[in-house]
Protein 1
Amino acid sequence: MNLRRAGTDTIWIAWMAIGYIVVLLPIVVVVFASFSDSNTFRFPPTGYSLKWYQAAFASSEYRNALGVSLLVGLLATAVSLTAGTLAAYALSRSEFRGKSSIETLLLAPLALPHIVWAIGLLQIYAWLGIGGTLLGLVLAHAALTLPFAVRIMLSTFIQLDRTLQEAASTLGASPPRVIWHIVLPLIWPGVLTSALLTFLTSFNEVTVSVLIAGSRYLTYPVRLYSELRSQGIDPTTVAISAMLLALIVVFALIGERFLNWSRRV
Amino acid sequence: MTPAYLSITGMAKAYRGTPALRLVDLSVNEGEFLALLGPSGCGKSTLLRLVAGLLQPDAGSITLAGQSIERLPPHQRDIGLVFQNYALFPHMSVAKNVRFGLSMRNMPRAEADQRVGEALALVKLEHLAARMPSELSGGQQQRVALARAIAIRPRLLLLDEPLSNLDAVLRNSVRTELRELHARTGLTVVMVTHDQAEAMTMADRIAVMSDGLILQHDTPQVIYEQPASDFVAKFVGTPPAAMLRVDRKHDGGFGLGTSPWTPSPELARVLEPIQRVGVALGLRPDHLALTAPDAPHAMPGTIRTIEYLGAERLVHVEVGGQLLVLRLSGDAAVGKGEVGVAITRVPPIFDIETGLRLASTG
Amino acid sequence: MARKSTVLLLTPGLLLTGAVFLSPFVFLGLTSFWTQRPNSLLIDPAFTLVNYVRIATDSFFLGTLFRTILLGIVTVAICLLLGLPIARWIARRAVRTRGILVVLMVTPMVSGALVQTLGLVNLLSLLGVINGLLKQLGLIDWSIRFLGNEGGVLIGLVQAFLPLMVLPLITTLAKLPEDLEAAARSLGAPAWRVWVTIILPLAMPGILAGSILVFFASVTSFVTPQILGQGKVQTFGTVMYQQSALVNDWPFASALAMAMMLVLGVLLLAVRAVRRGLERRPVIGSAS
C-alpha cells in the first residue's frame, strides 16, 4: 500500500514537473543563453561571458527602443489608471439601470480578439492620420489595459467600507479631505497593483504595436519581433530580455509578498 | 413655549419609490436621551442618517439649536455619529482616530492633544492610545468610536445600534456606561435600537417606529403602561403584552370566543360604553392572577407550559384560543390543567380594526 | 451618489473604450463590404460581398481557417490533459504554497509573449538546447527540425497558453470539499473512477472556462505562429496580418477579421448552450 502510494506521488510530481518545465523552460533558456559568448546561440555553448550585457548597455538603438516602451507604458498607465479608477469608483458607489452592461462594455477588451481589433485600429488610425504617432500608441495601449485597471480598482473599492467615508464626513472632513485622508491611504495597494499590471501589459504588448507603430516610435517588443522575423537573433537582445525578466520576477515576488497578487488579480 | 433643541418636521424619504419614512415629526429636548425603537426596516436608521446628513430628505426640515440644517453637508453639521460597525479608520492609531475630527477643524496641537486625552479618559482607554484598531477587542473599538465622536464636542450625538455587536456580558456594562457618559457630558443623544429592553433602560424618552411612521413618542413608563397601539404593546415589555379578543353579544353581554363571560364590575364599567363589536385587551402578567376555574369573573383556561426563572415563574395559560402569560413567585405551587384567570387591573383596550388604543381606557 | 457625478466619472473610461477599442470593430464591419482598387491605396466605398465570396470559395483561406481551428482544438486538448492533474495538485496545496505555484505559473505570462518566443527559438532551433542535448546523449545524429512546421507552432501555443487552462481549473477545484475524494474512495471507488465520476463532472465549469480561453487565445494568436512557423505555417492571424500590413488589401483583411469574429461568435453561442445544459443538470452525482 505504501509503495503504491509512493508510486502515485511520483507520477503526480513528475506530471507537475513536466507542466512547469513546459511553461518556464523558455524563459530559463533566455537567461542561460544571455551568458553565452558566441555570436549565434548554440547548445552546448562554446563559452560563457558577460559581453552581451556590456553590449546591451552600450547600444543606443536598444536604449531608444526601451525608452519608447517605457514612455508609452508610463503614459498609457497614467491614462488607463485614471480613467479606470474613476469608472470603478462610480460603479462601486452607485446603483443605476444598465450598470452591468456598462461594466461589460468596460471589460470588453479582455474578451475580444486583439488581432481583429488591431486590424481595424490600423485602418482607423490611417484615416485619422495618427498611425505611427506617440498619441496613437498611447491611446491603443491605454484602451487595451483599461479593463485591468477597472477590474482591480472595482474590487478594491468594493472592499473599502463605505461607512469609513461617512464617519470621516460626520467628523468634519469635506469631500476632498475624505478622499485624501481616508480613501487614498486605504486603496493604494490596489492602485499600485493595477499600475504595475497595466504597465507590464503595455510594456509587453506586441500584436497591435507591430501594426500601428511607425519607425519613430518603435517599442522594444516590436524591435524584438522584427529581429525574430528576419531570422537573426542579436545576442544583445537576449541579454536585455534576461534583464527585463529578472526585473519582472522581482516585481512579481514583491507583489505577491506584500500585495497578495495571486488573490487580487 | 420654546422650540425643541432638535426638531424634525414633515420628514419623508423613499428609496426607488419605496417609502422608508412616510411623514415624521419628532422633537428632542436639550440634554435628553432619546431612543428610536422599532423592528428592522421600520425607518429608524434612515431617520438617523437623515439627521447626520448622510442622506438627503425628499421633504421636511430639521432644525438643531435654532439653526436649519437640512441643507448642510454632513461635515458642517457638528453631529457625532457612532456607527454600528464602529467604522474606525484602520490605517490610523486609536489616538489618530480620536484626533481626526479635531484635525479637520484645524485645532492647535496642544489643545487637540488635551481633547484627545480627555475623550480617551472618558471611555477609560488612555492606555491604548498608540494601538491600531485591529489590535482592539470589539468593546474597545466601540469605545474608541465613542471617544472619536465625543472629541469634536458635537451638538448632537447619534448612536446606531451601539450594543448590537457586543456579547451579552459586555452589553449590560456598556449600557450602564453609556448612561453615565450621557449624565456626565450632558450631551443630547439619539440612539437607534431594535431592542426594547435597551430602549427602556437607557432612554429618557422613546419614539417607537414601524413602517416609516412614529407610533408613539413618550417616556418608557407611559409607553409601557399606556401603549398607543397594539403594535407598541406587543413590541415593548418582557414578556410582551398578549392580545385577548372580547366580543360584544347582541344581548349586551360579553364573550370570549364562543363562550359568554362576565367581566369584573370595574372592567365592565370601562367596556360598557364602547360601541364596538369587539375589542382587544392588551394583557401583561401584571394585569392577571390565577384563581379557581369557577371563581366569579374568572376566565376559564388551561395551563400549557411553565417557565421557571428562579425568583419567579411564568405560567402560559390558554384562554379562548389565546396564550396569556402570568407571573407567579418561584415557590408558589402550580399544577397543570384547568384554572381560572382573573383580570386584576384594567388593561389597555384596543380597537380590533385599527389597533389603536381606545382613548377612554388604560 | 448623484447621477451627474456618476456619469462624469464614467465618461473617460467609456470614451476610451468606445472610441479606441470598440470603434475599430464597427469600422471593420463597414469596410469589409468595400473593395480595394487594384494597384492603388484607394478604397472603393461601394457595398459588395466580393470579399466574403472570395473567402468562402478560395481553398487557401478555407484551408487556413480549418488549420487554425484544428490547431486550436489540439492545443486545448493538450493543455487540458497536461493542466488538469497540475491544477488538481496545486488546488490541494496550502494557501501559501498555492500562491507561490500560481505566481510561477503566471510569471511567463507577465514576462511577455516575445521574450517567451525568443526562448522557444533558442530551445527549438537546429542548434538549440533540445537538439544539442539529444546529440550529446547520442540519441540523434542529425538535428530535428522543430521550427517552421505545425509541430513547432503547437509547442509554442501550449507553452504560451497552458496557464490560461490551469488558473481557472485551480479556482474551480479549490472550491471542492477535500473530503469528497476520500468519501468516494471509502465507498470503494478506485482512483480512476473517482476521476471520472467525481472530479471531472465537478470541474466542468473550470474545464469549459479554461478551454474557451485557450481556444480563443490560440485561434487569434499571431506572434507565435508567425515566428515559430517561420512563414511556412499560415494561420488566420498571420494571413490577416499579411493582408493588412504586406498586401495592403484592407477591405479584404476586414472581411477576414469579420469571418473570424463570426466563427468565434458561433462557438460562443454553442458553448453557452452547453453551459446551460450543465446548469440544468443536478450539481452532484446524476443517477444515470
Protein 2
Amino acid sequence: MKNKNLYNYILGIADNSLILGQRMGELCGHGPSLETDIACTNISLDLFGQVRSYFQYAAKIAGDGRTEDDIAMLRKEREYKNVLLVEQPNTDFAFTLGRQFLFDVYHLAFLSELQKSSDLTLSAIANKCIKEVSYHERFSSDWVKRLGDGTEESKQKMQDAINSLWTYTDELFHQTEVDKAMVEEGIGVDVTQLKEEYYKKVSQLLEEATLDIPESKWFQKGGKEGIHTEHLGYLLSDLQYMQRTYPNMEW
Amino acid sequence: MSEEQIKNLEEQFEARIARDEKIEPKDWMPEKYRKTHIRQMSQHAHSEIIGMLPEGNWITRAPSLRRKVALLAKVQDEAGHGLYLYSATETLGISRDEMYEQLHSGKAKYSSIFNYPTITWADMGAIGWLVDGAAIINQVPLCNTSYGPYARAMIRVCKEESFHQRQGYEIMIKLANGTPEQKEMAQDALNRWWWPSLMMLGPTDDVSVHTAQSMKWKLKRKSNDDLRQQFIDQTVPQAELIGLTIPDPDLKWNEEKGCYDFGEINWDEFWQVVKGHGPMNKERMKARVGAWERGEWVRDAAMVHAEKKQERKQKQAV
C-alpha cells in the first residue's frame, strides 16, 4: 500500500467512532427515558455516519478491493486502534454519559484541528462531523452537570464513573509513530497540544457539576497500539458476527 | 348539566364527526370517546416503544455499516412515533407516566407481534416488509380519523412507516437474490412472520368487540377482515416477485372474487400471545420495566437539578 501511514491514521480516528457508536447502539430501547433513548441512538447514528466516511476513504486508499465493511468488521482484535476509553462498557447511565463526555471534549478539539489538515478529504470529513460532535458535547456535558449536581445518589454514581474512567483519559494525547509521521506531513493533528486545554475544560465542567477532579496520576494506555481491555473482544463478537458467519456475501 | 343538555351535545358531536369535522382537545366530547381514544392511542404509542426492542436486538449485529445506520434510524423513528403519540394522547387528559404505569402493570396492551423473537438478520427484513406493511394498512385510514391530534400524528407516522416498509422489503430482495443460505434465511423469516402478521390486523369481524363504535368515530374505516384481505392481496405478489413462498398451502387466487383465498388462521395462538403467553411477552416487559426502574435515579436527578437551577435563578433575581 502506497499510503500506509495515512491508511492507519484514518483507522485510528475512525475506530474511536466505530467502537463508541457500537456501545451507544447497545442502549437502544433501554434508556432511562424516551428522550435520552432517542438522543443516545442519535449519537450512535452520527458516529456510524462518520465511520462510513472515514472507512470509505480508507478503502479507496487501500485500493485492494476491501470495502468499508471489510475494514470495519473483518480485522482481528489487535488490529483495532481505538482508545481504551471508548470500549468501556455501559455500566450505568453515569458511566455511559461520563465516557461520552470525556471523549466528546477531546473529539471536538481534535476535529477542530483536523479541519486544518492538508488532506482535503480528512478536512472535509472533520468539517462535517464537527457540527454533530459539538451537539454531542453539549448533551453529555449537560448530563454530567445534571447528575453531578442532582441527587446524592446521582452525584455518587457520576463521581464513581468519572473516577473509574479517568485512568483512560491520558491515552487520548498519546502519539503513535503513525501519528507523528502524519503530523510531520501536515495531515495529522498533534494531540499532545490538545492536552492542557482538555484537562482545563473537563475540570471546569466537573467543578460546575460539583464533582471532585480525580487526583490519580496512574493512567492506562494501549488501545492505539491494539492492546485493549478485555471488553473489546465481546464487543467485536457482536460487531463481526454476520460478516464472520456468512463470509463474502452482500447484504 | 341536565340529561337533555348532554343528549343535545352528543347529537351535535356526532353530527360534527359525520360532517368530517375534526374534534380538538378543548372541544366537548363524550366520556366514552375520550376513553376509547386514550385506549387506542396509548396502545399505539406502547407498540412503538415495545417495537423498538425486537429490532434494537440486531443493531449491534447488523451485517454492514449501511444496514446498521438504516436500522438505527428506523428504531429511532419508532421512538419518535412513540413520543408524539404519547403527546397526542396527553391532550386527552392523561399523563405519560400514567400511561407507562398502565403498560408496565400489564393493564395496557401493545401489538402482539412484538412478542415474537427476532432470531436472524432476515427478521429485520420481514418485520419491515410484513409488520410495517400490515401497520400501514391499519394506519393509513387513521390519517382521516375524527380526533385531530391523532389524525395529524398519523400523517407523519404513515410517511415514515412506508419508508420502513420499503427498506424492509429491500433487505428481503437482497437476501432472496443472494446465496442459497441467504435465500433460506429470508424464506425462514417469511415462514415465521407471515401468520403473526395476518393476526396483527385483529380478530375476525364476528368476534371483534370494538368495530361498530370505532367505525362511527372514524377510528376505523374498514373491518379487520377487509384490511387483512387487502394486506394479503398486496403482499402475495411481492413475495412471488422475489421468489419466496407464502407458507400457506391453501392460498390461491379466486378469479370470481378477484382476491386471494387463504387458509385458517390459528386464533388459539393469537389469544395465547394476547393473554401474555407468547414466546417473548415476559422478556419484553422485563426489558421495558427494567429500563424504567434502572432509569429512576436518572430522572430524579434531572428533576432535582432543574429545581436547583430554578432556585439559583430566583435568588439571583432577588
Protein 3
Amino acid sequence: MTKHPPLAGPGLFDPALLSHAARDAVLKLDPRRLAKSPVIFVTAIIALLASVYAAFGIGDAPAPLIVQIAAWLWATVLFANFAEAMAEGRGKARADSLRATQAETMAKRLAHPGAPPEPVSSRSLHKGDLVRIDAGDTIPADGEVVEGVASVDESAITGESAPVIREEGGDRSAVTGGTRVVSDHLVVRVTQAPGEGFLDRMIALVEGADRRKTPNEVALSLLLTGLTIIFVLVVVTLEPFAIFSGETIPTAYLLALFVTLIPTTIGGLLSAIGIAGMDRLVKENVIAKSGRAVEAAGDVDTLLIDKTGTITYGARQAETFYPAEGVEIETLIRAARLASLGDETAEGKSIVALAERMGMRGDADRIGTLVPFTAETRLSGIDLADGRLRKGATDAIARWLAADGGALPDDVRDDVERIARAGGTPLVVAQDRRALGTIYLKDVVKPGIKARFAELRAAGVRTVMITGDNPLTAAAIAAEAGVDDYVAEATPEKKLDYIRATQADGHLIAMCGDGSNDAPALAQADVGVAMNDGTPAAKEAANLIDLDSDPTKLMRVVEVGKGLLISRGALTTFSLANDVAKYFAIIPALFLAAYPQLQALNIMRLGSPGSAILSAVIFNAVVIVVLIPLALKGVAYRPMSAAALLRRNLLIYGLGGLLVPFVGIKLIDMAVTALGLA
Amino acid sequence: MVIDLAQFALYALLVTTTAIALGAWMDIVLARPRTDHPVFARVDGVLCRSAGIDPAAEQNWLQYAAAVLAFNLAGALVLYAILLTQAAHPFNPQHLPGLSPWLAFNTAISFMTNTNWQAYGGETTLSYFSQMAGLTVQNFVSAATGIAVGVAVIRGFARRETKTIGNFWVDLVRATVWILLPLAIVVGLALVALGVPQNLMPYTSAETLSGGVQTIAQGPAAAQIAIKQLGTNGGGFWNANSAHPFENPSALTNLIEMWAILALPAAFCFLYGRMVRDRRQGRAIFAAMAIVWAVGLGVTYAAETVGNPLIADVVAGAPANMEGKDARFGIASSALWAVSTTAASNGSVNAMHDSFTPIGSLMPLVNILTGEVIFGGVGAGFYGMLSYVVLAVFIAGLMVGRTPEYLGKKIETKEVKLALLAFFAMPVGILGGGALAAIVPQAVAAVQDPGPHGLTEILYAYASATGNNGSAFAGFGAGSPWHTTAQGLCMMLGRFAYIIPMLAIAGALAEKRTFAPSAGTFPTHGPIFVGLLVAVILVLGGLTFFPALALGPLAEQFAMAAGTTFAVH
C-alpha cells in the first residue's frame, strides 16, 4: 500500500492564511454568527457596553483606562473569531485540494441501458442516472458499475499509482467521482448526485459551513453558558456588597471583572478545536461523515482488526519442509521447488526461494509441463517425464491423491496439524500417488505490531483479530501478535454476532471493512471505517471512509478522536483554573478604597488598581491567541492508561492553568506600568 | 494541644467506624431489604399496607419527586397550622400564644426542609405540644425525606436500563422505622441518663444566690435533641441550642451529640459504595469529604487558638479566642462542633460562631457555601456531592480522551444541565438574597455590626438558610417580615432546587446502558479523583463566593491583623 502524501494544508504561519483569517475575524462580528458561541456573544455585548461608557465618558473610572478596557474586550472577541477563522481557513485549504478532484466535467448520460449517450454537465446528474465512461474519461460522480470491466486510476484520491479494476457486481463495483477510467469502458449508476457525495459532505464539515455541534460539544457549551450565568450573578451582586462596605465600584471595572471570569478562553477556542479535529482526520486521508463519528472514535474500547494486511503481511512465507516417513528431505525439497514453479503467487515464489536457499539448484533443465495454480484446483505442479508433481492445500492434495486411489499417510496428517497449531499454513507435496511431505508456510506478523497492541491495551483499547483461518491457526497467530481475542473462520454473520455480543457487554467497537457483506457489521459497530475501494453499501453503512484503504488506519482514527476530546477537556480545565489568579489581581484592586488591608491578597504586587484590572483583561485576551496553535494542532495523545493520562493532563493544564496567569498577569502589569498605560 | 488533637482523632475514628457499620445496615434495610425476614416483613407489611402502599410498586423519577413534594407540602401546612393555633393546643404550661404568620411560615418551611433555622427562641416561643407534635415530627420526616431521596438518587447511579428509582413512601417508612427511630431511641435514652431533661413540667422559678429570680426552662428535650442531632436538623429545644447546659450537660453528651451530627451523613458514602457494588467509589467520596472537613477543622482550630491579637494585652490569660465559647468545651470542642455542624447541614451549635475570629468563622461559612456537601445533610449532602461529581467528571473527564463517564455511564448534555441547575441554588439564594439584604433598608436594619463583620452576618444567614444548615451566626435579627419571608424562600430553594434536578439525573442515569470499565476509563476511585473532586468543589465554590468572602471574613481578618476595628453604628 503506497501511502498518499497528506493532502496539502497550509502551515500555521502561512501569511495568506493569517491575513484571510484576520479579515474573517472581523466579518464574524455579525451578531448572527457570534450567537453560535454564547460566551463570545456575551463578551461582545459587554465590549459594546464598555465602548458606550468610553465614548460618553460615563463612570467614575479614569477615561483612558475605560477606553483601553473597551478596546481589549473587543480584542478578546476578535481573537476568538480569529481562532475559528484560522481553523476554518486550514480546513478550506484542504477542502480545496479535495475539491480539485471534483471539478466539473462532461458526462455521457444514458436514458436507458443501450441508449445513445447524451452529453450533459456532471453537475446536472441525479441519483440513479446511468452514465457511460470511456477510456480517458473522468468519472463524473460516485456510483456503482452496472456494466463492464475497466481499470481505473484512483490516484487523485488515494495516491495509489497503480490502476485498480472496477467491475459490475461483487466488491469492486464502486467508483468515486473524480477518478479516471484508464482502459475499457463502464456504465455506472450514479449513487450520489454531485454535491452530495462523501467528499462534498466532508468538504462542508472541514469548511465549517455545515458544522453542527457534536453532542459532547453541546454539553460543554452548556456548561460554559451555565458558568457565565453564575458569574453574572457574582458580578451583579458584588455592587450591593460593595455598597454595604461603603464603596461603589466603577461599572467599567465590573464589566472587566465579568469578562475575565467567564470562560472566554475555551469559549473562544471551542469551535476551532472541533474544526481542527476534523481537519486532522482529513490529514490522515480519512473522511468523516459527521463530527459525532470522530468523537465516538475516541470512546472506542474494542478494535476489530482483519488479520491479513494489518496484523500479518498479505503473503505467507515458506519456512520449513517436513518429509513424510521414508522420504529423503532432498527429494521433498526438489519436488516442492519444481511443483511451485508454476505458482506465480508470493507464496509459491517463497517456496522456490527457500528451496534455493537450501542449496537446491540446477534442476531448471528438467523438461516438463508446468501446471499453473488456479483457484479451482488450488494446486500447482509440473508434469515430468518420470512422474507428476503437485503441491497444494491439504484437502486439495488429498482429493488429487484419492482420484488415483492414494491417500495421505498419518504422519503427514500429524505434520499438517502441528503446523496449523503453530499458526502456519501447511501445504502438501505429492508425487503421483504418494505424499512426499509438507511445507510449512508461515504467516509473518508485522514487526512492531505486538508493541502497538500492548500500547493500545495500556490505553484501555482491546484488539480483536478477525481471520478466515481455522481456530488452531488463528489462536497461534493471535498469541504471536498479542491481540486480546480473535474470531476464527470469520463470516460476515459471525462478525456481526461478535459485535452485538461485545456491545451487550458494554463495549464500544470500531471496525473496518470493504465488502458489501461487511455493511451490516459496519452499521452495527459504533465506529465503522469503510475502505474507499469498498462497495457503495459498505461506504454507506460506515461513518468514516479511509481514502487510502489502509486497514491499519483504524488505530490512528481512535487516536485522533481521543486527541480531540483531550484538547477540549484540557483547555476547559486550563480556562477555569485561570480564574483564580484573575481574582487575586482584580479583587484587591476593586476594594482598595474600602479595605486597603485587602492589599494582602495582591500577592502579585501589581502596580496600581487600574493596571491590575487592565493587565487581567489583556491577559484574558492574549491567552486566546497564545493557545490557538495548541487548539489547532490538538493536545498530543500518546496511548497510556487513563489514570496516567489524567494525572499528566491535570498537572499540565490544571496546575499550569492555576499558575501561568500569575506570571502572565505580572509580566503584563510590568509592561503596562512601564508604558504608563494605567 | 496534644489532647485536642487526640480528641479530633478519636472523633474521626468514632464517626468513620460507625459510619461503615451504619452504611452496611442502611444497605440491608433500604437498598436490599430482607423482605423474607419475618420481623422485617411484618413491620413493613403492617406499616405499608395500612397506608395503602404496595412495597413492590416502584416509581419513576417524576412520580418520586411528586411524592416528595406532596408529602413535604402537606407536612409544612400541618406544622404551619399547629404553630399559628398554638394557644389552642394542650401541653402549654407557660400559656405561650400562637406564632405570627411570618414566623410560623418561616418555622414551618425551616423544619420541613431540614434547615431548622430558628427565628425565635424555643423556651420563650413554643409550647411542648408544638415542640413534640410539630417540630419533632418534622425532625424525623425531613431527615427521612433526605435519606429517601439520597437512596433514590444512588439507585439511579447504580441501576441500568430501567425507568424506576424506588418508591418514596416505602423509602420514607423504612428510613424512619429502621434507621432514625432506633438510633434516636438509643441516643435519647443515653442523653436522659446523662442528665438531659425529658418532662412536661412547667418552668421552675428559682431564687439565685444573689437574690434574683431565674426561670429555669425545661420540657421534653432529650427526645428532640436526639433526632435534631441524628437527622442533621439542628434546631435547638432552647435558644442557646447545644451550648445550653440542659441540652448538652457534659463532655460525654457533647461527644455523643457531635458523633450524631456526622454519623448518618458519613454512612451514606459507605452505603453508596455498597449500592453501586464498588466500595472504592464510596471511599473516594468519603475521602474527599474528610479532607475538606479536616482542613476546615485545622484552620478554625488554629485561628481560634491564635485568637485576636488586638485584645491579647487586654484579656488576661491565654490569647486564645474564648469569647462566645463555653468554658466546659474550650477551643477544641467548639471548633470541632462548629466545623462538623456546618459540614453536615446540621446547624446545632455549642458555641457562638459570631464570636469566632474572622478566619475561624470563614471555614464554617465555606462549608455551607460549598452547598452542604462535606458530608452534608442526611442523604441531602450525598446527592449534593453527586452533583459535584458529575461536574468534576465532565470537566476533567474529557482529558482522558473519552466522552466523560461515571460508573460506566456517559455524562451527557442532560446530566450536565441538571447538575448545573442544582449548582445554581446556592449562588441564587446566597448572593441574590444576601445582596438584597445588604441594600434594602428594612433588611439592613437587622444587621448588628458595621463593616466586614456585618456582611459576614448577612452572608452567613443566607448561606445557612439556602444550604439548609440552620445554624445562626448571631448578630442578625432574623424575625422581621423581610427576612422570615426571604429566608423561607431560600430554604425551599436550597432544598428542592437540589432534590428535583438530582432525582431527574437519577432518572436519566437509570435509563442508560453501562459501559465496561477498562484501562482507558476515567478512574473515579483513586487519589487523583479525590484530589480532583476537592479541587472542583473549592474552585467552583471559590469562584462563586470569593468576592463576597473578600469583603466579609477576609477583609475583617486582614483589618484585624493590621489593627483596624470597625465601630458599631
Protein 4
Amino acid sequence: MLTKEQIAQRIAKEVKDGYYVNLGIGIPTLVANYVPKGIDVEFQSENGVLGMGPFPFEGEEDADVINAGKQTITTLPGASFFDSSMSFGMIRGQHVDLTILGAMEVAENGDIANWKIPGKMVKGMGGAMDLVASAENIIVAMMHTNRAGASKLLKRCSLPLTGVNCITKVVTNMAVMDVTDKGFVLLERAPGVSVEDIKAATEGNLIVEGEVPEMVI
Amino acid sequence: MINRTVSSVEEALEGVKSGMTFMVGGFGLSGIPENSIAQLVKTGITDLTCISNNAGVDDFGLGLLLQGKQIKKMISSYVGENDEFERQMLSGELEVDLIPQGTLAERCRAAQAGIPAFFTPAGYGTEVAEGKEVRDFNGKPHILEHAFQADFAFVKAWKGDEAGNLIFKGTARNFNPVMAGAATITVAEVEELVPAGTLDPNQIHIPGIFVKRIFQGAKYEKRIEQRTVRQRD
C-alpha cells in the first residue's frame, strides 16, 4: 500500500510540461514536492495566486501571501496575484489544465462527494464545486477504503455530492484507475497489492483488462 | 477630485443597523477589514447577515461578531476552523448558506457590475442546485444564480488615496475588489491612506467610484492562520 506521500509522488507523474495546475488541500498539496525536474509548471491557488512557490523560510512569512489552505507560501518568478472572481474565471473558463483534489467518495459514474457529512461535518465546499464542474482533467487523490475498511469507490455516492459525472482518474493507496462510462478501469496496482485485493476493496464496478502492471514510483 | 475620506471608523460605519446585510472581504484571515469588524462589535448591532468567504476563527475576524451572537446568518463557502461557529450552526442558532466559492465571488461581482443573474455549471446536480433554474448551454447543464443585495460592503486594501482608489497586496486581494461597489455603501479601510495624485493611476486595482468612504485603519494585527515554513539548508 502506498503512503500519502507516495500517492502524491505517483500523481506527480501526470503533471506535464506547460501545465497550469490547481492543487486541493491535503494529499494534493504534496504533489508540488514531486514534480519531475526539467518541466515547467505553474501552481494556481484559488484564493488568488498563480506561480506558487514553496513555504517561506522562517522569519519571512507574510500574512498577505497564503494559499487556499491558509498556509504561508512564497511566489516564484512569473507569479501573479488576482481577485477571487478572476481566479474562478480561470477555473470556469478552463484555463487551468489539471485539477488534483481529495475526496470522501467517488462513484463509478464519476460523481464525487467531498464537502459534507450530514450531522457530523459541515465545513463547506470552498472552491471544489466550481473546480469539478468546469475542469476537464481531474485527478482524485484518496485512500481506497475508510478506517473501518469500507470501500470509498462506490456504485453511487452516499454523501451529498460535490459534482456529477466529472472525475476522470483516481489514484489511491492501492491503485490507479480511469473513470469511464463503464466504471473504474484498473490501470496500475500498488507494489505488493494484488488485483484480487483491489477488487475486494472496490464496491463500484472494477474493470480489469489483461495484466495490470505494478506502479513505478 | 471627489474626496471619499472619512475621519474615523465611527464615521465610516454611520448608518449600520441591526438586521442589515453586509459583505465582508478577506480569505481566511488574510485581507479582512479588521478595524471595521472591531467597530461593528462595539456597535452591538445584531441579526446581521454576513456574506463572506469564511467566518474567521474563534477569537478573530468575523469570529468576534459570532461570539457576541450578532450574526443571524452567514453566506460563505468554507467555515472550518471555528468551533463557536460550528456550535451555533449545529444548535440552530445560526443560519448558514454554503455556496461554491466561485459562485460567491461572481454573485458579488454581478452586484458590482449591474448584472442581476448569471448561469454557472458549479453545483449542478448537488444540493446547491435545489430549486434553481437549470438550462443547457453548449450541451452542458448550468444553474441560475443571482447577484447579491447588500447594505454595506466592508473591504480592506493595502494602499488607498483620498479619491477612494485602492491597491491590494498579495493574496489579501481575494474578495475585496469584487465586493467594492457591490453594496449600497462601500467602506474601504487601508493600511496607508495617501493624498490624491500620489498613487500611479496605472497601478490602481479598484477605482474610487466603487468606494463611498475610505479611512486608514488605526492598527493591523494581520494574524497568520497557518504558519508554514521551511528550513534553510
